[in-house]
Design goal:
- The chain is of the alpha/beta class.
- The chain has one domain: Aldolase class I (TIM Barrel).
- 34% of the residues lie in helices and 19% in strands.
- It is built from eight helices and eight strands.
- An eight-stranded parallel sheet has the order 1-8-7-6-5-4-3-2.
- Helix 2 runs parallel beside helix 3, helix 5 runs parallel beside helix 6 and helix 6 packs parallel to helix 8.
- The relative contact order is 0.17.
- Bound molecules: D-xylitol-5-phosphate (DX5) and zinc ion.
- The site of zinc ion (ZN) has 6 residues, from strand 2.
Length: 219
């Protein structure tokens, strides 16, 4: 079953706790939390204190997507705030192998995100060390952007590489421009975890948005 992870970037920041609770009630599997530093990406969101503030509103795993430089400075505080998974950008890490292991040493699941232009080959020597690879299907920084179709062969290629190594437990997550149509395309290409911000939080009927994503991914 495909994992659906609503991105709270598109939620109402004035009532984040309630929007997180509602996502769980509407069938979400993970809560996707976008942390941006205004440096790695041209937008600024929030940090570990806000993650901690919404922790008690849901029992769903917190899937934290760090769009920040030197992400390792946030790991301990994010663990204390209740993060379950932490994904860093390959482009933001000089010592990616070390960074991934720092996440795992805290007992958290480690992911690596790739910007649209970043080749899969940066993962070649660390596929065995990660729990998740996040293929960005837009340029990170903002919600509501259009899906980049050239990412479909990249997802297929990654699925092939994971299968060839027998790494069936590594999630392929996609993030950006996911809706009823693109969900089917990325799932066919091999993605099994779908982030969606605008499509879910921009819809008055969030339960139906989530079930549409799940059904499209199955088709
Ligand atoms: C973009 C963020 C995404 C964003 C996706 O940089 O990483 O998680 O919220 O938004 P949509 O689904 O609206 O494209
Ligand atoms: Zn994200």
């Amino acid at each position: 079953m495909t994992i659906i992870a609503p991105s709270i970037l598109s939620a109402d920041f004035a009532k984040l706790g309630e929007d997180v609770r509602e996502a769980e009630r509407c069938g979400a599997d993970w809560i996707h939390i976008d942390i941006m530093d205004g440096q790695f990406v041209p937008n600024l969101t929030f940090g570990p204190p806000v993650v901690g503030a919404i922790r008690s509103y849901t029992s769903l795993p917190f899937d934290v997507h760090l769009m920040v430089n030197t992400p390792e400075r946030l790991f301990e505080d994010l663990k204390k705030a209740g993060a379950d998974r932490i994904t860093v950008h390959a482009e933001a890490c000089l010592h990616l192998h070390r960074t991934i292991h720092a996440i795992r040493e805290l007992g958290l699941k480690a992911g690596v995100a790739l910007n649209p232009h970043t080749p899969l080959s940066v993962l070649d020597h660390i596929l065995e060390d990660i729990d998740l690879a996040l293929i960005m299907t837009v340029n990170p920084g903002f919600g509501g952007q259009s899906f980049i179709p050239a990412m479909l062969p990249k997802i297929r290629d990654l699925r092939g590489r994971l299968d060839a190594k027998g790494l069936h437990g590594v999630h392929i997550e996609v993030d950006g421009g996911i809706n009823g149509e693109t969900a089917a395309l990325v799932a066919q290409a091999g993605a099994n975890a779908l982030v969606a911000g605008n499509y879910i939080y921009g819809n008055n009927d969030r339960a139906s948005a989530i079930s549409t994503l799940k059904n499209s991914a199955k088709a």
